[in-house]
Amino acid sequence: MASESTFYRVLRRHGQVHHRGRSRAPLKVNKPTSYQALEARQVWTWDVTWLASRVRDRYFYLYLIEDIFSRKIVGYEVHEEENGEQAAALLHRTVLREGCYRHPLVLHADNGAPMKSQTLKAKLEELKITGSHSRPRVSNDNPYVESLFRTLKYVPAWPSSGFLDLDEARRWVEEFRRWYNEEHRHSAIGYVTPGQRHRGEDISLLAKRKALYETAQKARPERWSTSCRQWQRVEVVMLNPEKPETGLKTAA
């Protein structure tokens, strides 16, 4: 007689613990590392999406970097091809424009060729940026930029027939960037714009809204069936928060 753990220990010692049967062995997927952003310019996420042209099977490529704390589009470019050189150049320009050159920063991406190129890896090392990647064959490890791309392609102004040329694609994306950053009131950050949150203006805006709602409730309490909305600022934004047992890191 022996315990179950003893049986497994003896089997493991003799190399007898392995997958049996004709079915495929379970795929071991590494758990993602979670990062938390407490302010802007701590955790960025980025990806490349295709923009269809009016010519069949011809596409333009939108490289886009988003700050997960503010949801602001901090950098983008549209090109006619995908490669690591253009990705590295965009990242360098974005870091300089945002004033965070060689500051602690996490850049999360999927496993596309430009994201894992040696050119981009070298640029990350030069800029002292921590690289983070989605797990292979896991589609929801890069949710922020995927959500942004969905917004981009479902706005009423989206040209469903495709873009005439590269210049038209660039003009359209620039107009979208301006609208998204400065006019679009994002539900996940308290219905302020990404630009307002990135600049820290959301603190006073949300405080004013909270005071306005409380004043209105006190003036006409019979019109409120429940307590008024609190308009609390979102202080922490997580990357891959659905895995609490994974390593949690703060982008300092």
Describe the structure.
The protein has 252 residues and is α/β, with parallel strands linked by helices. The protein has 7 helices and 8 strands, in the order αββββαβαβααααββ. It has a single domain (29-252), classed as 2-Layer Sandwich (Nucleotidyltransferase, domain 5), CATH 3.30.420.10. Helix 2 (84-98) runs parallel beside helix 3. The model has no long low-confidence stretch (mean pLDDT 87). This is Transposase. Residues 28-202 form the Integrase catalytic domain. One of its GO terms (biological process) is DNA integration. InterPro entries: Integrase_cat-core (IPR001584), RNaseH-like_sf (IPR012337), RNaseH_sf (IPR036397), Transposase_IS3/IS150/IS904 (IPR050900).
Helices and strands, with pairings:
Elements: H1 4-13, E1 34-37, E2 43-52, E3 59-67, E4 73-79, H2 84-98, E5 105-109, H3 118-127, E6 129-133, H4 143-154, H5 166-182, H6 194-198, H7 202-219, E7 237-239, E8 248-250
Helix pairs in contact: 2-3
> What is the CATH domain class?
Alpha Beta
- Provide the β-strand percentage band: 15-25%
What's the helix-strand series?
HEEEEHEHEHHHHEE
Write down the overall mean pLDDT.
Answer: 87
Helix content: 25-40%
Major pleated sheet? 5 strands, mixed
The general outline is: extended
